[in-house]
Amino acid sequence: MRLLTHNMLSSNIKGVTNGFPLRIEAEKVVEKTVEMNADFLKKMFEKIQWKAFIDASRAMGYTELPEEVDPTTLESDEFLSKFHHALLELHLEEGALVCPETGRRFPVNKGIPNMLLHEDEV
Amino acid sequence: MDQINPELESINSLQITTKINNEKALKKMPSRTAQIRLMSSHEEVYEPCDDSFALVDALLADCNNLLKHCPTLCMEIGCGSGYVITSLALMLGQEGLAVNYIATDINPLAIRVTRETMDAHGVDAELIITDIASGLEKRLAGSVDVIVVNPPYVPTPEDEVGVGGITASWAGGENGRSVIDRILPVADRLLSEKGWLYMVTLIANNPSEICLYMREKGYASRIVIQRSTEEESLHIIKFWRDLDIEGDNEKASADKSAPGRLMEYVLTQLPPFTFWRCSDRDNK
Q1: Which of B91, B92, B189 is nearest to B132 (CA)?
Q2: For chain B, which has fewer Cβ within 10 Å, the N-terminal or C-terminal residue?
Q3: Under an 8 A CB cutoff, do A1 and B126 touch?
Q4: Which residues in chain A are closer than 8 Å to B140, comparing Cβ atoms?
Q5: Is B106 in Cβ contact with A117 (below 8 Å)?
Q6: B129–A112: do the CB atoms touch at under 8 Å?
Q7: For B172-208, how does the pLDDT look when each residue is reduced to its tens digit (9 = 90+)?
């Protein structure tokens, strides 16, 4: 699971009002190199919730991202390559996503998050 | 009279050369759809069948439009074996990650098979085990440019819906609409302003009613492919947001506007709904 996907996931348990962001418990992180596409990154930048994104990247052991960003940050090639790396090259292979409100753990195995709910959570 | 027209002969030989060149080009051209020999499988995962092929054929038929559409996020709800999302990724390409693919399935085994199928074809998607798009709806709202769905559309008793395993891939409840009717509002929520939805429907699902429901939400629709097999008659329908329809709905006007007429045209293409029950559940 990429951090792009993490940034799009919320806790889906019934009654939870503040289910975003899910806290990452990382047991195994893998890196897979992919070609960079600046246009794609710029489009994704608009959709990313930045605070959740840097917290997630830190939980994955990556601390190079700046705390504060604005659209002009995107003009820096150095920033773009860091953003690219954190967004698309880091994968949570094993671990869990934890609901910020209830503490319920959604397991991540072989890079795949399992968001299925138990009957009493739907 | 028996004389061969030299001009005609040269045209013929030209055609032959062109044909050979085309064959060469075809051999060189990488496949734009998933290949059956590279598909992974599992007894509890729905294998590609007529409905999967029809959906991929519809995407191929609309491929030039899809390429011009320049989607950023594409999603499949209920990816099963991964045949459709793999084919979509092969059609649109992934160079430099200009397109991000997301696929969901309620069956963990299906997600595993999709991963293997995609790996075998050298393409990639973010895979999530979830019910429809549960957990994604909030943050992904208004962001998805293309959604493809081959839903569980086979009419079954209501209690067979959501029992898990391979049954989840076809059991559609009353008129095969139980899961479809849950997917439609989710798709509406996830689709971006320019978003397109491609969905497989069976005649028993009453596709014209589905089109009318989507029209109320501001979508125009068109049948991309209609296919009848011995057992079922399938329509692959494409939906897209239409500002004229949205305007029409707001005005709630009864007059016959142009988009209204277009809609009527689509509806006349669909056979009238009959209370047809599908007894053979294996035919999905």
Answers
A1: B189
A2: N
A3: yes
A4: 8
A5: no
A6: yes
A7: 999 999 999 999 999 999 999 999 999 999 999 999 9
Which residue is closest to B138 within chain A, CA to CA? A10
- Here the CATH number for the domain that contains residue B50 is 3.40.50.150
Asked if B97's CB is within 8 angstroms of A88's CB, the reply is yes
Each domain of chain A, given as residue ranges in start order, spans: 3-113
Kindly report, residue by residue over B263-275, the tens digit of the pLDDT: 555 666 665 544 3
Would the CB atoms of A4 and B128 count as touching at under 8 Å? no
Q: Which residues of B touch A47 (CB under 8 A)?
A: 143
- Name residues whose C-beta falls within 8 Å of residue B59's C-beta, 6 or more positions apart in sequence: B66, B84, B87, B88, B91, B148, B198
Helix or strand run (H / E) with residue B20: helix B6-28
Amino acid letter at B129? I
pLDDT of residue B260 exceeding 60, the answer is: no
Rounded to 5 degrees, φ, ψ at B2 are: -80, -5
Q: From A99, which residue of chain B is nearest by alpha-carbon distance?
A: B135
CATH number among 3.90.190.20, 1.10.1040.10, 3.40.50.300, 2.20.25.10, domain A3-113: 2.20.25.10
ipTM strictly over 0.95? yes
- Whether residue B61 is contained in a domain is answered as yes
The verdict on residue B13 lying in a domain is: no
**Any idea what DSSP says for residue B33?**
S
In a domain, B20, yes or no: no
Q: Which of A 61-120 lie inside 8 A of B, CB atoms?
A: 88, 110-117
Q: How many domains does chain B have?
A: 1
